[in-house]
Amino acid sequence: MKSIATLGSHCALQVLKGAKDEGFKTVLVTKTSREKFYRRFNFIDEYVLVDDFKDVMNDNITQKLTEHDSILIPHGTFISEVGIENIEKLDLPIFGNRHILRWEADRELKTQLMQKSGVSIPKTFNSPEEIDCLTISKLSGARGGSGYFLSKNPEDYYSHVEKFKKDGIMTDEDVLQIQEYIVGVPVYLQYFYSPLKNELELFGIDKRYETNVDGLGRIPSIDQNELKLSPTYIVIGNLPLVLRESLLVEVYDIGENFVTASKELVPPGMPGPFCMEGVYDSHGKFIAFEFSARIVAGTNIFTTGSPYSYLTHGANMSMGRRIALEIKTGIKNQTLDKLLT
Ligand code: AMP
Asked: What is the pLDDT of residues 123-143, one digit of tens each?
């Protein structure tokens, strides 16, 4: 009997609860330090203990997961802790397209895929000398949302870089991506694409609650100026959101175009969950600054289903459960190969 496995972090509870609800055996690969926490939940059948998440690459761990006939569900912590190179050679079946994870991590490939999908993206500046509007500069490689700064002209940019270097946040080797800063409201669109039904589902929508940027508005501007506070974007949690219904038509188009583009550029495309991350500007136009090519932690809000998953599936359909349902259908129809890489 096949089992569903994931690493103990990010959205593991939601994924394994959903797998259990669909009748699967569930396996958690957890750090020993978190074992006590995860044992509080009765829907986890097997525990594979590691000292470090990278240990999932070790033969004795992959062997245990193979004995459990596990399908591994990738998530954000899996990518950041195990690393793209390792994931590409990991000798275990992974749900979704493991090759597209590199396109999520590499800023140039990411931009290429977004451009191919036709979604609007912020202007990118190749050199700091070209900065002529409010920009956000991002250090390469996700650093938990802390390696960012805003600047409005080259002088401003260089003074931030100097401060970052002085504070040890960046070195001379680090590369910054400079993007136009879109003033508006950030929105995260959570999708599921079923290759078995050839259908896209909008699953949920959230916004992130980020420190310290979401706290800056609580400090009077006079004090902000004096303290010279810079925004950081470390995600602390997520809040649910519904969009004006008239915006949903375009939201489906954005998702479908992304699925089409990913099939062309990174076969087999984008089976399973993904997320388009952007800002609605002052004209109500969606401008995407990122995508995630796997389940995002914002889906944890909807462990009992979201307003949108309710419309498609009825009650209690979480993203984790939707993944398990797709795998179950693949097993029944002998089409599992369309879902795994
Ligand atoms: P990221 O790591 O690219 O997801 O960005 C972290 C946060 O920075 C996002 O949640 C947004 O709040 C903000 N952000 C990133 N890029 C932009 C942009 N081009 N315009 C406005 N805000 C942005």
From this structure: 999 999 999 999 999 987 645
